[in-house]
Amino acid sequence: MGLVVQKYGGSSVADAEGIKRVAKRIVEAKKNGHQVVVVVSAMGDTTDELIDLAEQVSPMPAGREFDMLLTAGERISMALLAMAIKNLGHEAQSFTGSQAGVITDSVHNKARIIDVTPGRIRESLDKGNIAIVAGFQGVSQDKKDITTLGRGGSDTTAVALAAALDAEVCEIYTDVDGVFTADPRVVKKAKKIDWISFEDMLELAASGSKVLLHRCVEYARRYNIPIHVRSSFSGLQGTWVSSEPIEQGDKKVEQAIISGVAHDTSEAKITVVGVPDKPGEAAVIFRTIADAEINIDMIVQNVSAASTGLTDISFTLPKAEGRKAIDALEKNKSGIGFDSLRYDDQIGKISLVGAGMKTNPGVTADFFTALSDAGVNIELISTSEIRISVVTRADDVAEAVRAVHSAFGLDSDSDEAVVYGGTGR
Questions:
Q1: How far apart are CA 388 and CA 356, in angstroms?
Q2: Which of 253, 294, 387, 404 lies 20 to 30 Å from 34, alpha-carbon distance?
Q3: Spatial distance between the Cα atoms of 325 and 320, rounded to a whole number of angstroms
Q4: Per residue in 172-184, pLDDT tens?
Q5: For residue 376, what pLDDT is reported?
Q6: What is the DSSP string of 160-182?
Q7: What is residue 32's DSSP assignment?
Q8: From the CA atom positions of the chain, what is the Rg in Å?
Q9: CA 378 vs CA 135, 313, 370, 390, 400: distances in Å
């Protein structure tokens, strides 16, 4: 049997009983002959509670100290889990991200992994131990400071370790039974997907599906590490994410025309009003946004008014970056030459994802017909070969997701999807 990396989210280790339940599952994998490396998130809502505490002490905490604080949550989880495993008669050794060899850049609060040097992990495994690693954290390459990887960073930690250790699979344990055709909290009849390609999963993750982080899937695709998304609350098979379809019995699971419907209500829209319609203006706007280290999503430019020679440019971005983007644009108003800015954080994005839409005419028409029949107005549209995304009012998102899900025959006719607890991570 080979090496397996297992990652457990906050809802899986939310309390002492959860930790003991997870320990039994880990020991079972060890008894089956696997070498086991485990990555854990902070217990339950610990990270949110630490953020709230920091904000009470300081309205703008320093990045270095903020990271030092936030990494405490995962260290608590890893130590308790190691204790629980030892009580079951197996040796376990816990490691912080830096001890595990997770090396990052120096950007606090949203660092990116540069390299993984898991020498201490391998040494522990060779001694017959189960290795427990604190997710979401690493150490900067230059200053040797503790860093955090941002929301969902434990998933990325797990895949990065799986790649560095040449693991057979990276198992991501969460509070649902796998990846579904829509968020089961919104669509009760969502179906569990048995297998999904890296490409479709990347689009779903980028479009708001919270079960896997986008950069976690990108890392897995780069190193061809199969991911198995499953629940820590049940023994059911989950969803396989890989480059090639899995085999069930004597046949492979086929690629679906439509993989699922994702939604995201964490974005805002900024409209730059009265931009001179001439070459280079858009470049100045988006260079200003890039220099502020802000990622943008959808972009739409209106047709310019012939009488004024001015146009409007709208784009979406994370709500958390809205204030920073407005400030950056206002600071460079004279350089850009726009009239005004409009900010709207009451929007939502709905995305239809599926590699099959490339070769199936009518998908786009059916998508917009479903939205029309549901009375949903569209503000922005963006497409790729395997995705159609639209921006609507935030209040319309849930109804729009259900309408599109039903229109493409994705509703399950059996038991409703089970959400065991937590927020889906």
A1: 12
A2: 253
A3: 10
A4: 998 889 999 999 8
A5: 95
A6: HHHHHTT-SEEEEEESBSS-BSS
A7: T
A8: 23
A9: 39, 16, 12, 6, 11
